[in-house]
Amino acid sequence: MHFNIKNILISNDFGNKDDYQNIYINLYKTLKKAILNKSISETTKLPPSRVLAKDLSISRSTVIKAYNLLVLEKYVISMRGSGYYVTSSKNKKNHTNLNTGIKQGGYPKVSKRGNAFKKNIHIINNQSNNSIAFRPGLPPLDIFPVQHWKNLSNKYWRAIKSSELSYSNTIGLDCLRENISNYLKLYRNINCDANQIIITSGSLHSLYLISNTLIDKNDVVIIENPSYPNAYSLFKSLKANIYPIDIDNEGISVDKIKCENPKFIYTTPSNQYPSGVRMSMRRRLELLEWASKKSTYIIEDDYDHEFSNWESPVASVFSLDQQKRTIYLGTFNKLLHPSIRLGYLIVPHHLIDVIKALYKQSNRFVSTSLQKTLSDFIEKDYLNKHLRNVIEISVERKQLFLDYFNQNFNNEISLNSNNTGLHLIGNLKDSKKKDVKVANYLSQNGIIAYPLSKYYIGNNYKNGLVMGYCSVNNKLIKESIDKMSTAYFDF
After folding, report:
1. How far lies 1's CA from each of 7, 16, 202, 278, in Å?
2. Taking the alpha carbons of 29, 33, 36, 39 in that order, is the dihedral positive or negative?
3. Mean pLDDT of 388-417
4. Over the stretch 65-104, which tens digit does the pLDDT of each residue have?
5. Tell me, what's the pLDDT at 256?
6. Which domains can be identified in the chain, with CATH numbers?
7. Percentage of the chain with pLDDT > 70?
8. Closest CA to 462 of 417, 416, 432, 427
9. Pairing between strand 241-248 and 220-225?
């Protein structure tokens, strides 16, 4: 081997890393270190890539990647037909340290809106733990029909024409919007024109488009309390005047609203997030009458309709609205899986052009291949079959979660089993244990649970944990509850 480079690399820490997924970075850094500390002297010819790859038991492409990074930074030069050589230190200059004689200037200020988004990022639940148990809002990920989706995706790419690789319609493929329109008629009793449907990447994307379309600084926005933290953070960052309205066992009551000239009211009537309260029919009709008198919009976020309305469905606010002032949000991210990033927005015709203009100047459009695959997934009845399977499995896992959780916690955390969505709320018996600190400690121990207090606006909040119950199989549910109880009682 050339000048025993293997020993040189080992002495400079190559091979002592736990993560070999980026092994070429490891090799590049080790070679760079050896060059800088003179373990490999200037003008030395490095071993041919095949030779070094064989001696280190790695692929040749890995060695070439590392060599090319060194060439890019001028630690090595490549001579065609000869090989790679360590360059003279005189040629290695850190371009960031070049003295150009230009005096360091300042930078423009970040916009007020940019700073507002940065300031309010703490409002949303954004734990970095990679665990999925018991993250709220996740369906049974392990039963998704991956093979069906893969076959449909492959079919799309096999039949693709070069002309179809260009820009796509901003508001979505016609075929997907037609299929969603048909799906909504069957499963949500919503009759809408497919031309009213705009394809987005999910509920938050839909809210972003609506909010930027409607909200000016200091506009009045009414929101349920407690509520979806991401929505509250968004409205706050857009400098809206937010009026939270407490909910009761029938949902939001317009009798409690005292502010004037609201731009819109944001509500989750099918399954109030996160309490699980379903808005009564009486309240829905009162809401529509109030919105008409106030000349305002209603944003109806129907984020998990199928899970909360399967047994005894209640008509959506959108379907009851005769005045076209309800904007309806739906998503497939909670029904299929979050990584799919597909949702939809149903808007009155008079708002389509402005939302389309905003969309076209920001995200442009959702991936065409994803849209076509989902369209075929619906058309071939895979969605219907998967939906029924998801509901069956989620009911089974909910009961298992309730039984096993109660055995382990003995009412130290009391579960509210009336919640009809994909999560349960656990109220903390020990008031000295604050939910934010408990949630952070659980995260450090591999368990995700969101603090209930973060869903409330203002100081009148409840102390508890919001937990998804069906994202993992029965075995992992029990193992994760065991781990959670150990961590909780150690806290």
Report:
1. 10, 21, 56, 73
2. negative
3. 93
4. 888 989 988 899 988 888 899 986 555 554 445 566 788 8
5. 94
6. 2-94 (1.10.10.10), 116-124+144-380 (3.40.640.10), 385-490 (3.90.1150.10)
7. 92
8. 427
9. parallel
